[in-house]
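cron nightly-structures :: item 1 of 1
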Amino acid sequence: MADTLRISPRYYRWHVDPGVNWVERNTEYAHLHWEIPLDQAALVLVDVWEGHYLSDCEARINEITEMHVGPLIACARSAGMPVVHAPGADTARRQDGWVKLAEKNPLRATDPDWPPKDFVKKKADYASYARPFEPRDHELDVLRTERAIHELAQPIEGEAVVANGEEFHLYCKDRDILFLFYLGFNTNCCVLLKDYGTLAMRDRGYEVVMVRDCTTGMESYDSQANLGQTNGTILFLEMFRAYSVTSDEIIASLGANS
């Protein structure tokens, strides 16, 4: 069984070499070379659901899950790399593997007096600042309530399921996990912004690595053709204290040590 994960995480280098004109067009990608104790790393599955309300996004999710996510999960399990599922609070609490370590997340704590509750809810004097009513919101509410984990990413016995960032942190602390390898959906939403997502866990001090071929974002009408939201979010992480790798790189390293 593998005991070390050898990877070359990619980041975006703001700097240039001495004597090079320091302008944006001269910046570039760079790589590090890490040897990570496997028991200090975890594969983090964020919102790997069986469906999506955007049909083209759902098609990408299914293709990515079949081609990349499923094989990576299988390899991680075979090699003994911890797999952690973060499918959203409601879905997590329905799973047998829910760790039940924290009902509340300190990062989500709010001041009861400020901002005013009416402002937060866009009611009363602040109603004019609310986003317009969307007649299909009910469909989204139903999907959120009934969503299930993709059949290729179902938790198995012994794998942790977390419902919030504090729970995830406590799980990692208990097991000395420091390196978090993220995959899942959507890149520019839950993977980036959830309290167990890349930004929040990076700010807690963990090393965050995005598995860039195991994710896709929700695209706009003018970014869909080139996956601008997906690629832009990965680049954002690579620019600001996070990294990326491919699933093939992880699989190759785990296979070489098996």
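cron nightly-structures :: done
The beta strands are 4-7, 10-13, 28-31, 34-37, 41-46, 83-86, 160-161, 179-185, 207-216, 243-245.
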